[in-house]
Amino acid sequence: MTLHVEKVTWRVEEQAILRDVAVDVAAGELVGVLGPNGSGKSSLLRCIYRALKPDAGYIALDGDNVWDLDAKEAARRTATVLQETPGEFEFVVWEMVLMGRTPHKSMFARENAEDHDLVESALGQVGMLPFAERSFATLSGGEKQRVLIARALAQQARFLILDEPTNHLDVRYQLEILDLVRGLQVTTFTALHDLNLAATYCDRLYIMSEGEIVAAGTPEDVFQPALLRKVFGVEAEVQVHPRTGKLHIVFLPAHAAAPSATASNEAPASAVLVGES
Q: Distance between CA 212 and CA 39 in Å, rounded?
């Protein structure tokens, strides 16, 4: 499954929340979108999974305009895991995951042996099968996220959207969730808040600011001190971690940040900067 987003604009009254946003995700990639709060990340995801309809632009999955698909076909292609709200569900874990089979069923069809096998397999993949009869509301945040990912697996969609899946989770669960997603080998587009997690797990990144894509590329391309200063308003050192081989960003407190005049004016060497030459 591939994603192509071209010149997407979405407005609230006269204010443009998204402006000419363009994104591409190749089959099997894990691609992240990052940016400060209010930059438009969640609005972009909502346009892609059809919770919001753009005022302009084009969104395609495997070349098909998502707005030309009926609701069930769209759900068969795309599974969405949103930020979890504690206590919002009064179902047991098995029932939560079984909901992922809804796009594959007619209105009055009952679940069958195939559905049960898929639910069992999905729970097994995320390590939650022993919790099948537990109330969803009693689970920890990390466990709930695992169940929601299992529901996406039972849905058998080939494209996965995640809206800050590690938000409010302890460090252990953040790593476990992203290890799990990385291992699924499903085309994935995710909003993330933690830049170091993005550097560790994502193949490519899009950086948003004020409703626009301002940089795109690999973590090595986009995580440059000048770009972090410009978009996030922080001083940082970007290093390669000796054990992981991935980028690691060290954020500097104001009293320790003393960039030179040359450094403050530098531009990222490799990032694709929108609107700059």
A: 8
Distance CA 33, CA 146 (A): 21
149, 143 Cβ separation under 8 angstroms: no
pLDDT digit string (tens) for 88-112? 568 999 999 999 998 888 777 788 8
Instruction: Report residue 126 as tokens.
Output: 């995320």
Model confidence pLDDT, tens digit, residues 154-196: 999 899 999 999 888 889 889 999 999 999 889 999 999 999 9
Which tokens hold the place of 268? 């990222």
pTM over 0.85: yes
Q: What is the DSSP string of 78-112?
A: EEEEPPP-TT---SBHHHHHHGGGGGGS-TTPPP-
Angle at 66 between CA 275 and CA 35, to 5 degrees: 35
Q: What's 106-173 look like in SS3?
A: CCCCCCCHHHHHHHHHHHHHCCCHHHCCCEHHHCCHHHHHHHHHHHHHHHCCCEEEEECCCCCCCHHH
